[in-house]
Specification:
Blueprint: H1 2-23, H2 28-37, H3 42-66, H4 72-93, H5 98-118, H6 120-125, H7 137-152, H8 157-169, H9 173-197, H10 203-224, H11 229-248
Helix pairs in contact: 1-2, 1-10, 2-3, 3-9, 3-10, 4-7, 4-9, 5-11, 7-8, 8-9
């Protein structure tokens, strides 16, 4: 009976992570502690979590495409420099202590919170009529830098992708989420392969977690299609940023 409850808790954690990841970011702050709780070493939990993220984002991309929210051309253009940046970031990360990275990211999250609260309307509405059909050099460079961060450390990358897509490219927060999910999917394929060849993936727990993640992603894409969803997505993003900053700074 106890084992059944643990399985159910893993699926529930996956659902919350998938929903949060699809609409905001940092859902791994829910799923990673759960994987460690069931007995996986931290590095194996990190690799195993990528199984769920991969399947979650496949569902998310398909859901956003079905809702006609995903602009494929822009997504592909931005995913390429981001993936190149991630390769650079991954090589930087192996030389730096994790605690230093966590605290630096926590400070950045606090700054991001002010950006979210100062003018929430620009997150909800984007820059109507000003989104270019093809990204310019500056946008490509910004996503290369975000990619470096994503390779450097995964936690919170979705929030920075949203910032680039809303404040930089001019998308509203709902359409920005659709492109963000595609870019993270693009990141995750090579990352999962690296963890796999290094023996740091537990497929049993990963697939069980993925059941929840995929369900959460499906629910999130449905929620995004509802009228007024952008306001609630912005509120969720604010809550996630506050929680992420507190966790990364060691306040909770």
């Amino acid at each position: 009976m106890a084992q059944v409850l643990i399985y159910a808790a893993v699926v529930l954690a996956g659902f919350l992570a998938g929903f949060i990841n699809t609409l905001a970011g940092s859902g791994s702050l829910v799923s990673l502690p759960m994987l460690i709780f069931v007995g996986l070493p931290a590095n194996v939990a990190n690799g195993t979590n990528r199984v769920a993220i991969l399947l979650q984002n496949i569902v998310g991309v398909r859901g956003f495409h079905a809702q006609r929210m995903l602009q494929w051309r822009h997504a592909i253009w931005l995913a390429v420099p981001a993936a190149l940046g991630a390769i650079v970031g991954a090589n930087i990360a192996v030389e730096l202590p994790e605690e230093t990275m966590r605290r630096a990211i926590g400070v950045i999250m606090v700054l991001m919170l002010f950006v979210l609260l100062v003018n929430p309307k620009r997150w909800i509405q984007g820059k109507e009529g000003k989104v270019r059909e093809r990204p310019d050099i500056l946008e490509l460079f910004i996503f290369f830098l975000i990619g470096i961060y994503g390779g450097f450390i995964q936690a919170g990358v979705g929030i920075f992708l949203l910032a680039g897509l809303v404040l930089g490219a001019g998308f509203d927060i709902v359409r920005a989420n659709a492109i963000k999910v595609f870019i993270v999917l693009f990141f995750t394929v090579p990352a999962l392969f690296v963890f796999f060849i290094n023996g740091q993936v537990n497929w049993g727990w990963g697939l069980l977690l993925a059941v929840g993640n995929m369900s959460g992603a499906w629910a999130a894409t449905r929620f995004s299609a509802r009228p007024g969803a952008a306001v609630w997505v912005h509120r969720l993003l604010v809550a996630v940023v506050i929680y992420s900053a507190a966790r990364l700074l060691g306040l909770i």
